[in-house]
C-alpha cells in the first residue's frame, strides 16, 4: 500500500513537536505515522500533534507507539485499521514515563487531557 512504509523507522522516542516546544510540551500517549515514521502525541494529549501531522501532510494512518499496542488509527475514517508490522522499534522505551516526558508533565495533567 502506498500510504504505508513498513521499512521507515520512527522519528524518535517521543513527540517531535512536544520535545522541541518552549516551554516544554508533554504527552499522554504517542502515535507513529505509518508512512514517514513521525512520532506525535495522541488526541487526548493537550497539543494533539499526531492529528496535526495528519492535517499538515495528509498522512492518514497512525499506529499506537505504546508498549503492547499494535493497532492502527485511520484519521480519514476515524476508525481502527489493520496494517502490517512496522520497522522497529515499535514502541517508546519501556522505562519512559507515561505521561511524558519525565520532568515536563504538570501535576494536574489529568485535568488537562482532551476527552
From TrEMBL:
It holds the Pfam family zf-UBP. Transmembrane segments: none annotated. Residues 1-100 form the UBP-type domain. This is UBP-type zinc finger domain-containing protein. Residues 84-105 are annotated as: Disordered. It comes from Nocardioides vastitatis.
Amino acid at each position: 500500500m502506498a500510504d504505508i512504509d513498513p521499512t521507515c523507522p520512527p522519528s524518535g522516542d517521543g513527540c517531535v513537536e512536544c520535545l522541541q516546544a518552549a516551554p516544554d510540551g508533554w504527552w499522554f500517549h504517542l502515535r507513529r505515522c505509518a508512512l514517514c515514521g513521525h512520532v506525535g502525541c495522541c488526541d487526548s494529549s493537550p497539543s494533539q500533534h499526531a492529528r496535526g501531522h495528519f492535517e499538515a501532510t495528509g498522512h492518514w494512518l497512525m499506529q499506537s507507539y505504546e508498549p503492547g499496542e499494535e493497532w492502527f488509527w485511520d484519521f480519514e475514517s476515524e476508525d481502527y485499521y489493520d496494517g502490517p508490522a512496522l520497522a522497529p522499534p515499535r514502541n517508546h522505551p519501556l522505562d519512559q514515563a507515561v505521561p511524558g516526558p519525565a520532568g515536563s508533565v504538570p501535576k494536574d495533567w489529568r485535568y488537562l487531557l482532551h476527552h
